[in-house]
Structures are given as C-alpha cells and as structure tokens.
Design a protein that fits this description.
heterodimer, A: 350 residues, mainly alpha, 3 domains, 5 helices, 61% helix, 1% strand, B: 357 residues, Leucine-rich Repeat Variant
Chain lengths: 350, 357
C-alpha cells in the first residue's frame, strides 16, 4: 500500500444495485448487490470539460421562448382559418382543366416570389417580470457517503501526462525507427539482390568463357586432327608420286626414242629429199630396174634360148662329130695312121 | 448548486477529405473506395494514406485484394491532375515492393496500362515512380519481367533512353536491363539498336548513367551476336577507357561488360589495338586487381582469364611486375566466403597467364 500511487482514507466500495431495493435508506447494507457504474444513469460519462452546463434560469428562458413561438403559430393558424371560412370558395375546375391565377385588376402589377410580409407588434408579458420559480429539488434518494481527498490525490494533468507522453513519444519513435530500419533493410536487400544478380551474370559469362575455351580447344583439336590427316594423306600421295615418278621415269626412259621412231614411222618428221627419193626416185628406180631386169631376163632367156639352141646345135654337131669320130675311130681302128689325123682334127675342132 | 449536464452529443461525421482508416479487413476496401473517389481532395489524401499503408504487408495485401491496383493504373494513365498521377505512381512503386501486390500488378497488366505515362508523362516524378515500380516488378515475380517485355518496353526504352532526362536515364537503363533476362526482351532490345544506345550513353557526363549503360551493355552481350556487334562498334576501346573511371559503379559495369565482350576471339584480338592507346588497357586491368571491391576484383580476374588467351596480352601480363603478385595476393586472401570466390577466379586467371602451348 505504501508503494501504490494513491492512498484512500475510505476504501472504495461498490454502489447499491437498483434491482435489489429502491428504499430511501437501506436498512440492511450488508446484503447489497454490486453494480457496474458504467451503466448507472446517475453517473455522467464523458469529458466534463466539454459538457455544457445549463443553469435553471436558462432552461426556463428556453421553455418560455418555445411557449411563445407555439402560441404565435397557433394564433396565425386561427387567423388563416377564419379568413378561409369568410370567403366563398371557387368551384372546382371542369374535367381536363385547371385553375390558373390571373390578375383581374385594371392596373397590372409585377408579381414576385417575395413572401408576404406583415408587421406584428408584441409586448413583454408581465409574467416575465416575475422572479423565477424556485428550483424543484426532488427528495433525496440513495445513500450518502463521505470520503476524504487529500492534496495530490486527484488527477494532475502535468504529472499524470508525463508517463503517458513518455509512452506515446517512445512508441512513436520506436515505430518510426522500425520503419526506417525496415526501409534500410529493404534497400540493403535490394542492393544485395542487385549485386547477386551481377555476380550471377558474371558467373554466366564465366560459363560462356569456359564454353568458348572448350570450343576453342575442340576446334584446335579438330584442326590438328585435320592437319595430321592431311599430312598423312599428303605423305601417302608423295609416296605414290615418288613411285609413280620412278615408274614413269623408267617407263619413259625409251619413250622418246620410241616416240620419235613411231613418229618417224608415222611420218611426222618428213625429209623432202628423202620423200622425193622415196616417192619419185625409188619407184622410178625400181621401175627402171624392173624394166632393165625384165630386159635382162628377156635377154637372158634369149641368150639361154640361143645357148640352148647353140647347145642343141652343138650337141647335134657333137653327136654328128661323135658319129663322125666314131666313124673315124672305126676308120682309125682301121687306120692307125689316120687316127693321128683324126686326133688333130678333133683338136682343131675343139 | 447542482449542475444539469447535457449528454455529450454524438461525434459529428468527419469530413470526407479526412481519411480515417478502417479496422482490420475493412481497411483495404475502404481505402480503395476513397482512392477511386471523384473528389480531388479525397483522392489525393487517400493516395497519400495508401503510400504510407503499403509499407505494411498485411495492409498492402488488403488493398491489392480490394482492387486498388486497377484504380492506380487508371489514375496514372488517365490524365488526372498532377498530384494524383504522382501519388498513384508512387503507390504503384510501393505495390511493387510487396509480393502479393506485385502479383496483382501483373494480373492487372500494369506495365501495359502505364506505358504511356512511364515514357511520356509531363511530370518527371510520375516517370520516376513508374520506372521504380517497373524495375521492382521486373526483379520480383517471374511473370513480372515477362509482362514488361510483353508490353513492348525493350524497344521503347532503347528509343527513349537517350531522349530521357539525365536524372532518369539510369532508371530507364536499369529497367531495360531487367528486361534482358527474358529471351524475347533481349532479342527486341538488340533489334532496336540497344548496343549503339549503350555505347552512346557510356560517354555521358553523369557517372550513374555510365554505370547503368555499362550494366545494360553487359546484359546485352550475353547474346553471341551482340558480342560481335559490340566488337564491331569499337566497344572494347570505349570500355577499356572506362576501366579507369573515377566512379566505382562505372568501373564495375565496364569490367563486367568487357568480360562479356572478350569472350569472343575477335574481342580478345581487339585488346591489342593496331594503334597504341593513350593508356594501356592491360595496365588498367592489372590496376583493377588491387581494388578493395570484391566484385570488381572478381570480374577483373575473369577479364584477365579471358584476355590472357591472346599470346601478346599473355606475354604482357607475364612480363608485368605487378600482375602476378596481385593475383597471388588475391589467392592468399583472408579466407572469407567472398575471398574464396575471388581466390578461385584468381587461380583461374593465374593459370591462364602462365599457360604455355
């Protein structure tokens, strides 16, 4: 109790409940039923500073003004009713027609929407000069209670506002700081996200670099493979060329001579003198030889025939001689002496 | 004297332009209705409240379920007043942060709906918020980038990037970069002349533009034909000059783009120019190896591994007094995870430098 902010001379107690008993004096205060003062009509709620305090005189004056205005209205209504009853009413219009207000005076006047004004005079009534009636105070109800409020026990704004203001200012500053920190955190997250994005892009470029490096190496490998293949192919072609050249060299060693021979044979290299000799002279020579030979043969045959004839003639002559010799032999036998002569004769004949 | 106290009157209905948040599940539908209000004051105040509420995932989910994304699309592209367009675009940017709201954006075809506002709105703030929303959407759900590409952004961004104001050029290029993860987006960006645009913007006076252009060029050069096109457009010389840029982001982007470009043999050949450069590119690459930034040293190692394939560059790297010691220092790092990655690529670079046929 000593540490509490307030001290009470009389400890607070709940008020009596109206539902239990509404007697002026509660005889048995021990059996009272507690009631929530928030629903007690006797307790005025709201800001006491903003409440409008109406005095009894003011209320009476308001009631008097209301009474006066009601009386004026009633009097006006009575006058209008009397005027309406005094004049005969216009018969109702025929079917399909309507009444229209029109001026029937000799001199027309301008009509306006201005309401009819009338002057009225009034006088202050004597009743207002009467002093106000004493305030009616109903008989006392409820239970009187007493309490002692020492100095400093009531609400002091300057003192009580401090902790509330501290809380309000502190909470506002805290919320503001939280918002600032949240914005800073969001900015940091966004900045970090941007950096991460840039780093991710850099890593993607690194992937491109590695891809390019792999492509470059693959291309280099393909280039070298193609180069080696070309080298082997060229080497094989070189071997084939060498072999072909050797073969060709060996093959063509006598080719020129054969070619020249064939060309010469085919008549590509022609000597006009030789051609003249071959074409003209040799045939002429052969013809001449043939003719000469033919002549020689014919001469020889003639000679042979002559010789044969001569031989035949000689043989005939020989046979004649032989016959003569034989005849002479016989004669030689017959004549030895004569034989010598015959021999000489034969020698002469030879 | 006793007081007659009148009962406190009921609370008066608050004015419509004073946005009162509803409780729990009523929060999203009520705010969505107020965002769609025809009264300008109500609409603007509701959009302001929506921008604050979208930082809470639960409230963002409730608003997305209530169909606030369609309303925002209509506000951004509907030719409303400037504050409405700016706040609606800002709210879309907040929606893109939340996963469920981002899905709702994809379902509502937000990229196609706000394309005109994103590229041609008179208010720079509207374009800025639209770019931010689409960049986050492209980096969020997988369908996000696809929806952006399907709306025809790559070609439009390539044409817009050079004409855009300098302050928004980095965002336009970043949005284009987010489209490049999609094959169709990459092809459309290349067909629209993305390489030439990026090379042109690499010479910008603004460091952020140079960095964004380098990142975009690195993304474009994922495609093999883009590498060849970049090499033909003398991208190697431009990027080598950018390796010594005072801005770290520009150096990182240039190094990443060079890594991508020098993957091809022709790119490696371009590292050895016919006419000597004012500053040798190989010396600049070696200088990057000593940078404190881990990402930069990693990409520098990748670049060394790429260009060392060229015999002349390899000989130059081997003869340099600082190259191999710098690579050895990276290999013998302190041992953190990041250093392990750097050391891995440093070993690859060293093997490439010391390779002999």
């Amino acid at each position: 109790m000593a540490n509490s902010a307030y001290t009470h001379t009389t400890s607070p107690k709940p008020l009596l409940s109206k539902m239990k008993k509404t007697t002026y004096r509660a005889e048995d205060e021990e059996n009272i039923i507690t009631n929530n003062i928030m629903f007690d009509r006797r307790v005025v709620r709201g800001n006491t500073y903003a409440a409008q305090v109406v005095t009894h005189n003011t209320q009476r004056e308001v009631e008097r003004m209301r009474y006066e205005s009601e009386r004026t209205l009633r009097r006006d209504a009575t006058c209008q009713r009397k005027e309406r009853l005094a004049k005969p009413s216009t018969p109702p219009p025929a079917e399909g027609r309507a009444h229209i207000k029109a001026q029937t005076d000799t001199f027309l006047e301008e009509l306006s929407d201005r309401p009819v004004e009338s002057e009225a005079v009034t006088q202050t009534e004597a009743i207002l000069d009467r002093p106000p009636s004493p305030l009616f105070i109903p008989s006392k109800t409820g239970v009187d209670k007493e309490t002692d409020i020492p100095g400093g026990d009531l609400f002091d704004f300057d003192i009580e506002v401090k902790p509330i203001l501290e809380v309000l200012v502190g909470k506002t500053l805290r919320v503001s700081m939280m918002e600032v920190m949240e914005e800073a955190e969001l900015d940091a997250i966004q900045r970090r996200q941007m950096e991460f994005e840039q780093m991710r892009n850099a890593e993607l470029v690194e992937v491109q670099r590695l891809d390019a490096e792999a492509s470059r190496r693959f291309a280099e490998k393909q280039r070298r493979f193609t180069q080696e293949t070309d080298r082997l192919r060229q080497q094989a072609e070189l071997g084939q060329k060498v072999a072909a050249r050797a073969f060709a060299r060996s093959y063509l060693a006598n080719l020129s001579e054969l070619a020249f021979d064939q060309l010469e044979d085919s008549g590509h290299f022609v000597d006009p003198v030789e051609k003249e000799i071959q074409d003209s002279f040799i045939p002429w020579l052969f013809d001449s030889v043939v003719e000469t030979t033919n002549n020689h043969i014919s001469s020889s045959s003639c000679v042979d025939a002559l010789i044969v004839d001569a031989i035949e003639l000689a043989s005939n002559l020989q046979s004649d001689v032989i016959k003569q010799i034989k005849q002479k032999e016989r004669a030689r036998v017959f004549a030895v002496e004569d034989a010598q002569e015959i021999k000489e004769a034969e020698g002469t004949a030879k | 004297m006793p007081l007659i106290v009148k009962p406190t009157p009921a609370h008066p209905e608050p004015p419509a332009h004073k946005i009162m948040p509803a409780f729990a599940t009523r929060f999203g539908p009520k705010l969505a209705g107020e965002v769609a209000a025809t009264d300008r004051l109500v609409r603007v105040n509701a959009l302001t409240a929506l921008c604050d509420a979208l930082s809470d995932p639960e409230q963002a989910h409730g608003c997305a379920d209530a169909g606030v994304v369609e309303t925002l699309n209509a506000h951004v592209s509907g030719g409303q007043d400037a504050p409405t367009r700016v706040l609606a675009a800002k709210a879309l940017c907040g929606c893109a942060r939340d996963a469920r709201a981002a899905r709702a954006m994809v379902d509502a075809a937000t990229p196609a709906a706000i394309q005109g506002a994103c590229l041609n709105d008179a208010e720079q703030d509207v374009r800025m918020h639209c770019y931010d929303a689409l960049i986050r959407l492209g980096g969020g759900p997988r369908r996000g980038a696809s929806s952006i590409v399907a709306a025809g952004y790559p070609k439009a961004l390539v044409e817009k990037a050079e004409k855009e104001s300098v302050g928004l050029q980095p965002r336009a290029l970043d949005l284009l970069t987010s489209c490049l993860g999609n094959e169709q987006g990459l092809a459309e960006a290349l067909d629209a002349g993305g390489i030439a645009t990026c090379l042109s913007l690499l010479g910008s006076m603004e460091a952020a533009v140079r960095a964004a252009a380098g990142r975009c060029l690195a993304g474009l050069c994922f495609d093999m034909s883009a590498k060849d096109a970049a090499v033909e457009a003398d991208a190697v010389d431009t990027l080598c000059a950018l390796l010594e840029d005072p801005d770290l982001g520009a150096r990182r982007a240039a190094c990443a783009a060079l890594v991508s470009v020098t993957t091809t043999d022709e790119g490696k050949r371009r590292m050895v120019p016919a006419e000597p450069r004012p500053r040798d590119a190989v010396a600049a690459i070696i200088a990057l190896l000593a940078e404190p930034d881990a990402y930069l040293t990693t990409t520098a190692c990748k670049l060394v591994a790429n260009v060392a394939v060229h015999p002349k560059v390899r000989a130059q790297l081997r003869e340099d007094k600082e190259c191999l010691p710098a690579i050895d220092a990276l290999i013998a790092g302190p041992g953190t995870d990041q250093d392990a990655l750097v050391a891995q690529h440093a070993r690859i670079a060293k093997d490439a430098v010391l390779w002999e046929p």
